[in-house]
Design goal:
126 residues, alpha+beta, HIT family, subunit A, 5-stranded antiparallel beta sheet, 4 helices, 28% helix, binds guanosine-5'-monophosphate
Length: 126
């Protein structure tokens, strides 16, 4: 079944500027802003401006320009935060939750960038 995008989700409202956000970076296709409930000293959300529900939807349906822009912005945010492990930073984690098992809260594709403390192992045993 094709993805149905709910344009009343909170990130759609942020993109329409109906609610404020703490922007870190903005380009033609991408917005990066701070998570309202940060789970690490740095917690940035990177979202495409297009109407994509989750990772696979974006990767399959978005244009090359949107995908390249999204990935470049995610890298530049790491650069801006000084968290790149190859450049003297102490590293980070990117997460993209999808659907029920991924426990995705907001149905607009986003990548979390978490950094600024040791983040522990990727998953706790179920
Ligand atoms: P998910 O669980 O969908 O992967 O993550 C959604 C994230 O969006 C959560 O970390 C949550 O704190 C964040 N979030 C929810 N509502 C808002 C909001 O209005 N503004 C911002 N900046 N972040 C939000």
């Amino acid at each position: 079944m094709p993805y149905a995008y709910d344009d009343q989700n909170i990130f759609a409202k942020i993109l329409r500027k109906e609610i404020p956000n703490d922007t870190v970076m903005e380009t033609e296709h991408t917005l990066a802003f701070r998570d309202i409930r940060p789970q690490a000293p740095h917690h940035v959300l990177v979202i495409p401006k297009g109407s994509y529900v989750c990772h696979d939807h974006f990767c399959i349906a978005a244009s090359d320009a949107e995908i390249v822009d999204f990935m470049r912005v995610s890298g530049k945010v790491c650069q801006m935060l000084g968290i790149q492990p190859g450049e003297g930073g102490q590293g980070f984690r990117t997460i993209s939750n999808a659907g029920e098992h991924g426990v995705q809260e907001v149905p607009h594709y986003h990548m979390h960038i978490l950094a600024g403390r040791g983040l522990g192992r990727m998953l706790n045993p179920a």
